[in-house]
Amino acid sequence: MSKIFLLGANKSIDRAKQVVEVNQVIQMEGYSYDRYVVYEIRKNDWGIAYKLINLRTKEFYTADIIRPLKEKFGIGYYYDSENSQFMDSFEVAILLQEAQAQKKQQEEEAEQERIRIEEVKKTGRKRFTEIFPEDAQAVIVAHLRQNESDSYTDYYSYSTQRTVIIGFSKHKRDIFSEMRKHASNFEETAHLAEFNEDYEHREKYSMGDGYYLGVSKYSGWIIEKEPVYKRENTIEEFAYTAGSEDNIHINKPNTTPPSTPTSTVTDKGTDKNSYTVVEYSAKAVAVFGETKAIKDELKAMGGRFNSRLTFNGKKLAGWIFPKSQEQRLAYYFGLD
């Protein structure tokens, strides 16, 4: 039972045969190239287990196969059979104490973090339950993604930095107009509220990301629907997110623009230019007018041009901004 056959190395190894001694230094090849010291050797029914300490990180490891360096093949633990290295017993004892103290500290920190997370979830469960409609079939969420890709190694991936709950749905169908409707609930996704076909992604295939609304798959904010299959499971899924009140933005925006502009400024730049700045919704501000001459400045302020905005009941081209830019726009256009 203790014998195994390494197919790649074409070699049989008896794990019951001891190959190194306590206090002997070995090394990892083909991965980290770290060095380890054997501080204990244990025997069991399956062979020998070598208890190791990483000399660099002072972390514990266990190895059941250690091969001679002269027979190196692939990733694994190796010992130098021709020039064996040993550490002083006292040095190993000190190293063991340091490794144990480090492990204890890490366990205590992990326990503290577990307790903190559970406290956040406890608050989140209560908060999410209170806002979770009984007839909800899906949760509409915004995810902030960070690009983790490495084009040099042909590796493409992302991590989710934040999740925000922006609405609920009474059905599980993926409808982009519904996602856009809720995008204005959150300032950071307000730019996704206006129609743009390039923001609509349909990836319902193997290894795809499903239906989502956003500029990029790998970075920035995206909006998607997460179906509710079992109410208690969904509450638990969003407990940590809802633990922070700032991660809940479910107020319905006022999508009807005012019949008269909030502010108007004329003669900015040249006599023929007239710009209108309006509160477009509860979360967005729009600028209309002859803006071609100042388009670079508007873009630098976070504006996004859209040819299908609605103003005074008509389709009109203009620039849409998050509400956070309202004061900056007022200063730029000289509004009182």
Provide a quick synopsis of the model:
This protein is α+β, with helices and mostly antiparallel strands.
Written description of the protein model:
With 336 residues, this protein is α+β, with helices and mostly antiparallel strands. It has three domains: 3-87, SH3 type barrels (Roll); 129-247, no CATH class; 263-333. The protein is 23% helix and 35% strand. It has six helices and 19 strands. The strands form four sheets. Strands 3, 4, 5, 6, 7, 8 and 9 form a seven-stranded mixed beta sheet that branches. It has a five-stranded antiparallel beta sheet with strand order 11-10-14-13-12, with helices on one face. The protein has a five-stranded antiparallel beta sheet with strand order 15-16-17-19-18, with helices on one face. The protein is elongated, with a radius of gyration of 31 Å. The protein starts with a strand and ends with a helix. The relative contact order is 0.09. The model is unreliable at 252-273 (pLDDT under 50).
Annotation keywords:
five-stranded antiparallel β-sheet; 3 domains; 23% helix; 336 residues; alpha+beta; 19 strands; 35% strand; SH3 type barrels
Low-confidence stretches: 252-273
Question: What spatial form do the alpha-carbon principal axes imply?
Answer: elongated
- Structural class of the secondary elements? alpha+beta
Beta-strand share of residues: 35-45%
Query: DSSP helix count?
Result: 6
Listing every helix as H and every strand as E from the N terminus to the C terminus, the arrangement reads EEEEEEEEEHEEHEEEHHEEEHEEH
* Total number of domains: 3
Q: N- to C-terminal separation?
A: 86 Å
